[in-house]
Amino acid sequence: MFKDIAFVDLAAQRERLGSRMQVAIQRVLDHGEFIMGPEVAQLEERLQSFCGARHAVTCSSGTDALYLALRALEIGRGDAVFVPSFTFSATGEAVVLAGATPIFVDVHADTFNIDCDSLNAAIKETISANRLTPRAIMSVDMFGQPADYTLIRQVATVHNLHLIADAAQSFGATWNGENVGTLGDVTTTSFYPAKPLGCYGDGGAVLTNDDSTADALRSLRVHGMGVDKFDNVTVGINGRLDTLQASILLEKLAIFEDELKLRDQVANSYSEQLEQIVECPQLAARATSSWAQYTVKVPNRDQLQESLRDLGIPTAVFYRKPMHLQGAYASYPQAPTDLVNSENLPDSVLSLPMHPYMDQEQQERIINAVKACTA
Ligand SMILES: *Cc1c(COP(=O)(O)O)cnc(C)c1O
Fold this sequence. Notes:
It is a single chain. This protein is an alpha/beta fold. 41% of the residues lie in helices and 14% in strands. It has 13 helices and twelve strands. It is globular, with a radius of gyration of 21 Å. It starts with 9 loop residues before the first helix and ends with a helix. The mean pLDDT is 97. Bound molecules: pyridoxal-5'-phosphate. Pyridoxal-5'-phosphate is lined by residues 61-63, 87-88, 90-91, 140, 166, 168-169, 190, 192, 202, 204. Residues 61-63, 87-88, 90-91, 140, 166, 168-169, 190, 192, 202, 204 line the site of pyridoxal-5'-phosphate.
Protein backbone atom coordinates (compact mmCIF):
# COMPACT_ATOMS: atom_id res chain seq x y z
CA MET A 1 0.00 0.00 0.00
CA PHE A 2 0.93 3.66 0.29
CA LYS A 3 3.84 4.84 2.36
CA ASP A 4 2.71 6.76 5.47
CA ILE A 5 2.85 10.50 4.98
CA ALA A 6 5.36 12.18 7.28
CA PHE A 7 5.04 15.78 8.46
CA VAL A 8 8.84 16.09 8.14
CA ASP A 9 10.56 13.06 6.54
CA LEU A 10 14.02 12.82 8.08
CA ALA A 11 14.20 9.12 7.16
CA ALA A 12 14.07 9.95 3.44
CA GLN A 13 16.93 12.40 3.91
CA ARG A 14 18.93 9.75 5.80
CA GLU A 15 18.43 7.36 2.91
CA ARG A 16 19.73 9.96 0.45
CA LEU A 17 22.80 10.70 2.56
CA GLY A 18 23.54 6.99 2.77
CA SER A 19 26.88 5.85 4.17
CA ARG A 20 28.36 9.39 4.02
CA MET A 21 26.69 10.13 7.35
CA GLN A 22 28.10 7.02 9.05
CA VAL A 23 31.55 7.84 7.71
CA ALA A 24 31.34 11.41 9.03
CA ILE A 25 30.21 10.28 12.48
CA GLN A 26 32.81 7.50 12.59
CA ARG A 27 35.53 10.06 11.81
CA VAL A 28 34.61 12.00 14.97
CA LEU A 29 34.45 8.80 17.04
CA ASP A 30 37.94 7.97 15.79
CA HIS A 31 39.63 11.31 16.44
CA GLY A 32 37.78 11.76 19.73
CA GLU A 33 37.72 15.56 19.85
CA PHE A 34 34.07 15.72 20.91
CA ILE A 35 34.23 19.33 22.11
CA MET A 36 35.29 22.02 19.61
CA GLY A 37 36.84 19.45 17.29
CA PRO A 38 37.99 20.34 13.76
CA GLU A 39 34.49 19.86 12.27
CA VAL A 40 33.19 22.82 14.30
CA ALA A 41 35.61 25.27 12.69
CA GLN A 42 35.03 23.67 9.29
CA LEU A 43 31.27 24.05 9.64
CA GLU A 44 31.62 27.68 10.71
CA GLU A 45 33.63 28.39 7.56
CA ARG A 46 31.04 26.70 5.37
CA LEU A 47 28.18 28.54 7.03
CA GLN A 48 29.99 31.84 6.48
CA SER A 49 30.52 31.18 2.80
CA PHE A 50 26.99 29.80 2.36
CA CYS A 51 25.33 33.00 3.51
CA GLY A 52 28.11 35.53 2.99
CA ALA A 53 28.42 36.61 6.62
CA ARG A 54 31.92 37.47 7.94
CA HIS A 55 31.45 35.36 11.07
CA ALA A 56 29.48 32.25 11.95
CA VAL A 57 29.66 31.26 15.61
CA THR A 58 27.99 27.90 16.19
CA CYS A 59 26.32 27.18 19.51
CA SER A 60 24.13 24.79 21.48
CA SER A 61 20.66 25.78 20.19
CA GLY A 62 18.63 28.46 18.46
CA THR A 63 17.49 29.64 21.87
CA ASP A 64 21.06 29.96 23.15
CA ALA A 65 21.93 31.73 19.88
CA LEU A 66 19.35 34.42 20.73
CA TYR A 67 20.58 34.69 24.31
CA LEU A 68 24.22 34.93 23.17
CA ALA A 69 23.31 37.59 20.59
CA LEU A 70 21.63 39.76 23.24
CA ARG A 71 24.53 39.33 25.67
CA ALA A 72 27.11 40.09 22.95
CA LEU A 73 25.27 43.36 22.24
CA GLU A 74 25.28 44.05 26.00
CA ILE A 75 21.51 44.19 26.20
CA GLY A 76 20.18 43.53 29.69
CA ARG A 77 18.50 45.09 32.69
CA GLY A 78 16.52 48.23 31.93
CA ASP A 79 16.58 47.60 28.18
CA ALA A 80 13.57 47.09 25.92
CA VAL A 81 13.59 44.62 23.03
CA PHE A 82 10.71 44.61 20.54
CA VAL A 83 9.50 41.10 19.72
CA PRO A 84 6.64 39.90 17.49
CA SER A 85 4.05 38.14 19.65
CA PHE A 86 3.16 35.47 17.09
CA THR A 87 6.33 33.37 17.41
CA PHE A 88 7.85 30.40 19.16
CA SER A 89 8.38 31.33 22.82
CA ALA A 90 12.19 31.11 22.60
CA THR A 91 12.27 34.56 20.96
CA GLY A 92 10.85 36.37 23.98
CA GLU A 93 12.30 33.91 26.46
CA ALA A 94 15.88 34.81 25.50
CA VAL A 95 15.13 38.49 26.13
CA VAL A 96 13.91 37.77 29.66
CA LEU A 97 16.85 35.45 30.38
CA ALA A 98 19.22 38.23 29.31
CA GLY A 99 17.55 40.45 31.93
CA ALA A 100 15.88 42.77 29.42
CA THR A 101 12.18 43.42 28.87
CA PRO A 102 10.37 42.08 25.79
CA ILE A 103 7.75 44.39 24.35
CA PHE A 104 5.30 42.44 22.23
CA VAL A 105 4.35 43.74 18.82
CA ASP A 106 1.76 42.58 16.28
CA VAL A 107 2.42 40.77 12.97
CA HIS A 108 0.92 40.98 9.49
CA ALA A 109 -1.87 38.49 8.83
CA ASP A 110 -0.58 37.64 5.35
CA THR A 111 3.17 37.13 5.97
CA PHE A 112 3.00 36.28 9.71
CA ASN A 113 5.95 38.67 10.16
CA ILE A 114 6.41 41.78 12.32
CA ASP A 115 4.14 44.74 11.51
CA CYS A 116 6.20 47.95 11.42
CA ASP A 117 3.20 50.16 12.28
CA SER A 118 2.71 48.24 15.51
CA LEU A 119 6.48 48.28 16.02
CA ASN A 120 6.70 52.06 15.57
CA ALA A 121 3.80 52.61 17.97
CA ALA A 122 5.50 50.41 20.57
CA ILE A 123 8.82 52.24 20.21
CA LYS A 124 7.16 55.66 20.53
CA GLU A 125 5.28 54.60 23.63
CA THR A 126 8.41 53.14 25.21
CA ILE A 127 10.31 56.37 24.56
CA SER A 128 7.59 58.56 26.03
CA ALA A 129 7.11 56.31 29.09
CA ASN A 130 10.85 56.80 29.71
CA ARG A 131 11.16 53.73 31.94
CA LEU A 132 13.08 51.38 29.67
CA THR A 133 15.79 52.08 27.10
CA PRO A 134 14.83 50.86 23.62
CA ARG A 135 17.83 48.81 22.44
CA ALA A 136 16.86 46.24 19.81
CA ILE A 137 14.30 44.89 17.40
CA MET A 138 14.15 41.12 17.31
CA SER A 139 12.48 40.21 14.04
CA VAL A 140 11.38 36.66 13.25
CA ASP A 141 11.26 35.11 9.77
CA MET A 142 8.11 33.12 10.33
CA PHE A 143 7.75 29.76 8.57
CA GLY A 144 10.85 30.52 6.45
CA GLN A 145 9.98 33.85 4.87
CA PRO A 146 12.22 36.79 5.83
CA ALA A 147 10.47 39.72 7.47
CA ASP A 148 10.49 43.04 5.56
CA TYR A 149 14.12 43.96 6.32
CA THR A 150 13.95 47.04 4.11
CA LEU A 151 11.34 48.59 6.41
CA ILE A 152 12.65 47.15 9.66
CA ARG A 153 16.15 48.44 8.89
CA GLN A 154 14.72 51.94 8.43
CA VAL A 155 12.97 51.79 11.80
CA ALA A 156 16.14 50.46 13.47
CA THR A 157 18.23 53.25 11.93
CA VAL A 158 15.80 56.04 12.89
CA HIS A 159 15.72 54.90 16.53
CA ASN A 160 19.32 53.70 16.74
CA LEU A 161 18.31 50.14 17.61
CA HIS A 162 20.18 46.90 17.04
CA LEU A 163 18.51 44.55 14.59
CA ILE A 164 18.58 40.93 15.72
CA ALA A 165 17.12 38.54 13.15
CA ASP A 166 15.69 35.32 14.57
CA ALA A 167 16.21 33.16 11.48
CA ALA A 168 15.60 29.84 13.23
CA GLN A 169 13.12 28.98 10.48
CA SER A 170 14.58 30.84 7.51
CA PHE A 171 18.22 29.87 7.06
CA GLY A 172 18.69 29.55 3.29
CA ALA A 173 16.09 32.20 2.39
CA THR A 174 16.73 35.65 0.86
CA TRP A 175 15.37 39.19 1.04
CA ASN A 176 15.99 41.52 -1.89
CA GLY A 177 18.64 39.14 -3.19
CA GLU A 178 20.53 39.16 0.13
CA ASN A 179 20.98 36.00 2.17
CA VAL A 180 19.51 35.41 5.59
CA GLY A 181 22.55 35.72 7.84
CA THR A 182 23.44 39.19 6.55
CA LEU A 183 20.08 40.94 7.01
CA GLY A 184 20.32 41.74 10.72
CA ASP A 185 23.23 43.22 12.64
CA VAL A 186 23.21 39.81 14.24
CA THR A 187 21.30 36.81 12.87
CA THR A 188 20.54 33.66 14.83
CA THR A 189 19.48 30.28 13.55
CA SER A 190 18.59 26.84 14.89
CA PHE A 191 19.67 23.36 13.82
CA TYR A 192 16.85 21.62 15.69
CA PRO A 193 16.17 18.43 13.68
CA ALA A 194 12.92 19.65 12.08
CA LYS A 195 14.27 23.03 10.94
CA PRO A 196 15.23 23.42 7.25
CA LEU A 197 18.90 22.76 8.12
CA GLY A 198 18.78 20.46 11.13
CA CYS A 199 21.24 18.23 12.98
CA TYR A 200 20.51 15.12 15.08
CA GLY A 201 20.04 16.93 18.35
CA ASP A 202 20.15 20.55 19.46
CA GLY A 203 22.32 23.13 17.76
CA GLY A 204 22.38 26.71 16.53
CA ALA A 205 24.52 29.50 15.15
CA VAL A 206 24.94 33.26 15.31
CA LEU A 207 25.98 35.15 12.18
CA THR A 208 27.38 38.66 12.02
CA ASN A 209 29.66 40.91 10.00
CA ASP A 210 30.88 42.69 13.13
CA ASP A 211 34.28 41.55 14.42
CA SER A 212 33.87 42.64 18.03
CA THR A 213 30.38 41.11 18.30
CA ALA A 214 31.85 37.84 17.00
CA ASP A 215 34.65 37.99 19.60
CA ALA A 216 32.08 38.53 22.35
CA LEU A 217 29.99 35.61 21.09
CA ARG A 218 32.99 33.27 21.07
CA SER A 219 33.83 34.25 24.63
CA LEU A 220 30.26 34.04 25.94
CA ARG A 221 29.62 30.55 24.53
CA VAL A 222 32.56 29.18 26.55
CA HIS A 223 31.86 30.55 30.06
CA GLY A 224 32.86 34.10 29.19
CA MET A 225 36.41 32.98 28.54
CA GLY A 226 39.44 35.22 28.11
CA VAL A 227 42.64 33.43 27.04
CA ASP A 228 40.96 30.10 27.88
CA LYS A 229 37.93 28.78 29.76
CA PHE A 230 39.76 29.02 33.08
CA ASP A 231 40.14 32.75 32.55
CA ASN A 232 36.68 34.30 32.90
CA VAL A 233 36.34 37.88 31.73
CA THR A 234 32.53 37.87 31.82
CA VAL A 235 29.74 35.55 32.98
CA GLY A 236 28.93 33.28 30.03
CA ILE A 237 27.34 29.89 29.43
CA ASN A 238 28.29 26.43 28.21
CA GLY A 239 26.89 27.08 24.76
CA ARG A 240 29.06 25.09 22.34
CA LEU A 241 27.89 22.97 19.43
CA ASP A 242 29.00 19.31 19.73
CA THR A 243 31.62 18.17 17.20
CA LEU A 244 29.33 15.24 16.31
CA GLN A 245 26.53 17.64 15.40
CA ALA A 246 28.94 19.75 13.35
CA SER A 247 30.01 16.67 11.39
CA ILE A 248 26.36 15.82 10.72
CA LEU A 249 25.62 19.40 9.63
CA LEU A 250 28.57 19.39 7.21
CA GLU A 251 26.97 16.47 5.35
CA LYS A 252 23.54 18.09 5.39
CA LEU A 253 24.84 21.48 4.29
CA ALA A 254 26.36 19.81 1.21
CA ILE A 255 22.85 18.95 -0.05
CA PHE A 256 21.04 21.95 1.44
CA GLU A 257 20.97 24.09 -1.70
CA ASP A 258 19.32 21.25 -3.59
CA GLU A 259 16.87 20.63 -0.74
CA LEU A 260 15.84 24.29 -0.85
CA LYS A 261 14.94 23.88 -4.52
CA LEU A 262 12.91 20.77 -3.73
CA ARG A 263 11.11 22.60 -0.91
CA ASP A 264 10.28 25.37 -3.33
CA GLN A 265 8.78 22.86 -5.77
CA VAL A 266 6.61 21.32 -3.05
CA ALA A 267 5.44 24.77 -1.94
CA ASN A 268 4.67 25.90 -5.49
CA SER A 269 2.62 22.86 -6.26
CA TYR A 270 0.66 23.26 -3.00
CA SER A 271 -0.03 26.88 -3.93
CA GLU A 272 -1.08 26.10 -7.49
CA GLN A 273 -3.54 23.45 -6.44
CA LEU A 274 -4.88 24.84 -3.19
CA GLU A 275 -5.14 28.53 -4.05
CA GLN A 276 -8.90 28.35 -4.65
CA ILE A 277 -9.54 26.14 -1.62
CA VAL A 278 -7.72 27.67 1.36
CA GLU A 279 -5.72 30.83 2.04
CA CYS A 280 -2.22 29.90 0.89
CA PRO A 281 0.97 31.54 2.21
CA GLN A 282 1.87 34.82 0.51
CA LEU A 283 5.49 35.49 -0.38
CA ALA A 284 6.54 39.14 -0.62
CA ALA A 285 7.91 40.03 -4.07
CA ARG A 286 11.39 40.56 -2.58
CA ALA A 287 11.43 37.31 -0.61
CA THR A 288 12.37 33.72 -1.15
CA SER A 289 11.46 31.27 1.59
CA SER A 290 13.20 28.24 3.02
CA TRP A 291 9.70 26.84 3.63
CA ALA A 292 10.23 25.62 7.17
CA GLN A 293 6.45 25.30 7.15
CA TYR A 294 3.74 25.56 4.54
CA THR A 295 1.00 27.23 6.56
CA VAL A 296 -2.49 27.80 5.23
CA LYS A 297 -5.38 29.62 6.85
CA VAL A 298 -8.89 28.20 7.08
CA PRO A 299 -11.94 29.30 9.08
CA ASN A 300 -12.81 25.83 10.45
CA ARG A 301 -9.26 24.77 11.24
CA ASP A 302 -9.84 22.26 14.06
CA GLN A 303 -12.41 20.40 12.00
CA LEU A 304 -10.10 20.27 8.98
CA GLN A 305 -7.18 19.08 11.08
CA GLU A 306 -9.28 16.28 12.54
CA SER A 307 -10.64 15.18 9.15
CA LEU A 308 -7.11 15.15 7.71
CA ARG A 309 -5.88 13.13 10.67
CA ASP A 310 -8.59 10.55 9.95
CA LEU A 311 -7.26 10.32 6.39
CA GLY A 312 -3.70 9.75 7.65
CA ILE A 313 -2.46 13.27 6.88
CA PRO A 314 -0.41 14.74 9.73
CA THR A 315 -0.63 18.51 10.24
CA ALA A 316 0.43 20.93 12.98
CA VAL A 317 -0.72 24.22 14.47
CA PHE A 318 2.01 26.84 14.90
CA TYR A 319 1.13 28.57 17.21
CA ARG A 320 -1.90 28.07 19.42
CA LYS A 321 -1.23 31.09 21.63
CA PRO A 322 0.68 34.34 20.98
CA MET A 323 3.40 35.19 23.49
CA HIS A 324 1.62 38.17 25.06
CA LEU A 325 -1.24 35.84 26.14
CA GLN A 326 1.04 33.12 27.58
CA GLY A 327 0.94 32.81 31.36
CA ALA A 328 4.69 33.32 31.62
CA TYR A 329 4.73 36.47 29.48
CA ALA A 330 1.37 38.16 30.00
CA SER A 331 2.83 40.73 32.42
CA TYR A 332 5.31 42.15 29.90
CA PRO A 333 4.39 45.27 27.93
CA GLN A 334 2.84 45.22 24.49
CA ALA A 335 2.29 47.68 21.66
CA PRO A 336 -0.41 50.29 22.45
CA THR A 337 -2.72 49.09 19.68
CA ASP A 338 -4.39 45.68 20.02
CA LEU A 339 -2.40 42.73 18.75
CA VAL A 340 -5.33 41.65 16.62
CA ASN A 341 -3.52 39.46 14.10
CA SER A 342 -1.40 37.72 16.72
CA GLU A 343 -4.61 36.92 18.61
CA ASN A 344 -6.62 35.77 15.59
CA LEU A 345 -4.06 33.76 13.60
CA PRO A 346 -3.95 30.91 16.15
CA ASP A 347 -7.57 30.09 15.26
CA SER A 348 -7.00 29.65 11.53
CA VAL A 349 -3.41 28.51 10.85
CA LEU A 350 -2.65 24.96 9.79
CA SER A 351 0.76 23.72 8.65
CA LEU A 352 0.72 20.95 6.05
CA PRO A 353 3.41 18.27 5.67
CA MET A 354 6.52 19.98 4.24
CA HIS A 355 9.92 18.49 3.44
CA PRO A 356 12.12 18.13 0.35
CA TYR A 357 11.38 14.43 -0.19
CA MET A 358 7.64 14.49 -0.73
CA ASP A 359 6.89 12.70 -3.98
CA GLN A 360 4.10 13.67 -6.34
CA GLU A 361 1.88 10.79 -5.32
CA GLN A 362 2.10 11.79 -1.65
CA GLN A 363 1.45 15.41 -2.40
CA GLU A 364 -1.56 14.55 -4.57
CA ARG A 365 -2.99 12.58 -1.64
CA ILE A 366 -2.56 15.55 0.68
CA ILE A 367 -4.04 18.02 -1.80
CA ASN A 368 -6.99 15.74 -2.59
CA ALA A 369 -7.62 15.21 1.10
CA VAL A 370 -7.66 18.96 1.76
CA LYS A 371 -10.07 19.40 -1.17
CA ALA A 372 -12.32 16.61 0.04
CA CYS A 373 -12.35 17.86 3.64
CA THR A 374 -13.17 21.45 2.69
CA ALA A 375 -15.81 20.63 0.06
C1 LIG B 1 12.93 26.81 16.75
C2 LIG B 1 12.91 28.24 17.04
C3 LIG B 1 13.74 28.82 18.02
C4 LIG B 1 14.56 28.01 18.98
O1 LIG B 1 15.45 27.12 18.44
P1 LIG B 1 15.96 25.89 19.33
O2 LIG B 1 17.13 25.37 18.53
O3 LIG B 1 14.84 24.90 19.42
O4 LIG B 1 16.37 26.41 20.64
C5 LIG B 1 13.73 30.19 18.17
N1 LIG B 1 12.94 30.97 17.42
C6 LIG B 1 12.12 30.46 16.49
C7 LIG B 1 11.27 31.40 15.68
C8 LIG B 1 12.06 29.09 16.27
O5 LIG B 1 11.23 28.60 15.35
